[in-house]
Write a structure and sequence with these properties.
There is one protein chain. The protein is mostly helical. About 65% of the residues lie in helices and about 5% in strands. The protein has a single domain, classed as Rhomboid-like (Rhomboid-like fold, Up-down Bundle). A hairpin with a 2-residue loop joins strand 5 and strand 6. Helix 1 runs antiparallel to helix 4 and helix 5 packs across helix 8. InterPro entries: Peptidase_S54_rhomboid_dom, Rhomboid-like_sf, Rhomboid_protease_S54.
Length: about 250
């Protein structure tokens, strides 16, 4: 088993400190989780701090296990500074893609409401109070209404976007590495597991909604896709320019 590397160790400690602190001071989520930029709750530091906030023990346990499992290997080959740059970049990329998708849904539904005589100031005033106008549901489809309210009122937390970037990087560097997956009796090569998992899990839920069989997942699938996308673009650029072999210690 790969020995834990310095930057990964520091990230684990920071995540654990944030998690314990957020459990002791729940109001911290209002300041450190990532809000929609047009929401008054948005703060400029949230694209960074949301990466260290988690919603429960299972959430942080899964992300930290993945950070340790894949991150230590990557840091060993890249060096600490290069690994940290990649990790933070993927986390920021996750936030950016999630915002872009949410903004599209938000603006699309807002335009429909404005075209039907509603006033933007009144709409946002109600949303900021945690309220809705029931007439919106008569104008918007169920999907449009859901995406509109979730985009504006929802928050994003977790290291998952950055971790998805690590999965992509690991697959780039070790495509034939065999991964032991829980509930699957045989190991699967990274080059098969990672893309299939992302397509089936995040691709499906991202396209068809965050619910399946009537159960809300509560997962920011577009943030996952964003982290993976930025990880892919960085790895592609590094490989193309033979930069992937350089270390930043």
């Amino acid at each position: 088993m790969m020995k834990i590397t310095p930057v990964v160790k520091q990230l684990l400690i920071i995540n654990i400190i944030f998690f314990i602190g957020s459990q002791l001071v729940p109001v911290s989520y209002e300041y450190l989780a990532l809000f929609f930029p047009e929401n008054p709750g948005f703060k400029f530091w949230q694209p960074i701090t949301h990466m260290f906030m988690h919603g429960g023990f299972a959430h942080i346990a899964f992300n930290m296990f993945a950070l340790y499992s894949f991150g230590s290997t990557l840091e060993h080959f890249w060096g600490g500074k290069k690994f940290l740059f990649f990790y933070i970049s993927c986390g920021l990329g996750a936030a950016l893609v999630n915002f872009a998708v949410n903004y599209y849904f938000y603006q699309d539904s807002l335009n429909i409401l404005l075209a039907n005589g509603f006033n933007k100031t009144d709409i946002l005033s109600l949303l900021n109070e945690g309220k809705i106008d029931t007439r919106w549901q008569q104008i918007l489809t169920v999907s449009e209404f859901k995406h509109f309210t979730e985009a504006y009122l929802g928050t994003v937390i977790g290291a998952s976007g950055a971790v998805y970037g690590l999965l992509i990087a690991f697959t780039f560097m070790f495509p034939n590495a065999e991964l032991g997956i829980m509930f699957i009796p045989i190991p699967i090569k990274a080059k098969y597991f990672v893309p299939v998992y992302m397509l089936l899990f995040d691709g499906f839920f991202g396209i068809f909604g965050s619910s399946f069989m009537g159960i809300e997942s509560g997962i920011a699938h577009y943030a996952h896709i964003g982290g993976a996308l930025f990880g892919f673009l960085i790895m592609w650029y590094w490989k193309k320019n033979q930069f992937n072999n350089n270390r930043w210690n």
